[in-house]
Sequence to fold (286 residues):
Amino acid sequence: MDRLKREAYGKINLMLNISGVRADGYHTLETIMQTVGLYDMIEVVKTEEKGIRLTCDLPYIPTDERNIAYKAAEKFIERTGYAGGLEIHIEKTIPVGGGMAGGSTNAAAVLNMLNEMCGFPISESELEAIALTLGADVPFCLKRGTYLCEGIGEVMTRLPDLPKCYIVVCKPRASVSSKNAYGVYDQYAHPQHYDHTRMIDGLHKRDIHAVAGAMGNSFEAPIGELCPEILEIKQKMLEMGALNAAMTGSGSVVFGIFDDVDEAHRAKNALRAERYRTYCVKPIKK
Ligand code: ATP
Fold:
């Protein structure tokens, strides 16, 4: 197989709790991640001419070693000794700097696709270890569905699928870099903690109201203080019928969970009318 084109899905963090800081300075998390139906398209082509050539439809995304999908291809070549060259093309839809793992999911897709195109030379567990060297969200992005991710992203536990619902995702005008978000959190005087066991209980009971009631994100208050748009969008989603709404990851995207499809589309259209990039998507199962 010399050519493959696949969707690389984004994620939301249904809940995110910062549980501590390790001796090496890394923050540890307890987060429930959910794959959602918003995706970038990734095409990988094997070529005879050596080297990696990456292109992207967004001009401001780097196309060299700074691109995390490029790094993923380098790691694959380093590990397997693949002797040919590669062309990788990325069509972005997932908002950049939104906390939806846009870069991470591109890297994970490249790892999965190359492994498949080369006859699966790398086991699932080794692929996860390589993914973790690229970023905390990359191991989850190799999979799909609903997972509890702990530590620095290396401990993943599959959870029951999110019950049927509609997810409105809205990108504020501001973007947030994950690195800065940890600094902002560390300076914040009133850190908030959330209990993942309540949400897991709701998932087992297949109760979307219980799941929505257990949403929360330790980054939301400190990042929201710097970027009030986040809290305004959240408030609008709640007023328009969301069971609950929260920021995803380290921001800035806000998502609302709806059990009524018409309300979800009304909320999406109202936010679009305010010129926010907004989508109504469904959860993606394993
Ligand atoms: P996460 O949820 O994993 O924290 P994010 O959605 O907040 O990620 P990204 O969209 O992944 O953030 O990207 C943030 C930065 O990474 C941008 O500055 C961008 O230039 C750089 N970047 C490198 N490779 C990519 C890629 N393949 N797609 C998007 N951004 C990339």
In short: The chain has two domains: 3-158, 166-281.
